[in-house]
Write a structure and sequence with these properties.
single chain, 162 residues, alpha/beta, six-stranded mixed beta sheet, 4 helices, 36% helix
Length: 162
């Protein structure tokens, strides 16, 4: 179902910087005025509070998990939907190598307002079409969906099924 919500060009520009240059670790996007999806928060590796990956390195899965927990507590607000793009580092279970995975998380909490849930659910397709190269798309409706290990398992499964 199409909602008529547009995707701001900054969403695409910042996504490409995250995906190709690893300039950012997280993008938090929200729908503004029921008209347009816009970037509302950018978190990079250089920010004092978010400096988990030392020296701009891609970091380890443990760094990725630590950073996710901070973001989850700050930006996955109980009743406010959002879209989160996360440059998630996972360890390959067979080789032990660290791999980057660009994940789109649609946070649409079950206990949010019905109108917001409908608008965010029907607008995600427009965002997916613009964010080319996402490794996995995760739908999160409650706290258990935001558990890092649960997300990591889901991303691994989605990558192997491609």
């Amino acid at each position: 179902m199409a909602s008529g919500i547009e995707v701001d060009t900054e969403c695409v520009t910042k996504f490409q910087a995250l995906q190709k240059e690893h300039k950012y670790t997280f993008l938090v996007m929200k729908i503004e005025n029921n008209k347009e999806i816009k970037v509302c928060k950018i978190l990079d590796d250089a920010g004092e509070e978010w400096n988990v990956r030392k020296g701009g390195s891609r970091g380890t899965p443990e760094d990725s998990q630590e950073l996710w927990e901070k973001v989850r507590k700050s930006y996955c607000i109980e009743t406010e939907p959002s879209y989160i793009v996360f440059d998630m580092t996972l360890r390959n279970k067979d080789t032990g190598a660290c791999n980057d995975n660009v994940v789109l998380i649609t946070w649409i909490p079950d206990n949010g307002p019905v109108k917001s849930k409908m608008i965010y659910s029907s607008s995600v397709d427009a965002l997916k079409r613009k964010l080319v190269g996402v490794s996995a798309i995760l739908q999160a409706n409650d706290e258990s969906d935001l558990d890092y290990e649960h997300m990591a398992k889901t991303v691994r499964e989605k990558k192997t099924s491609k």
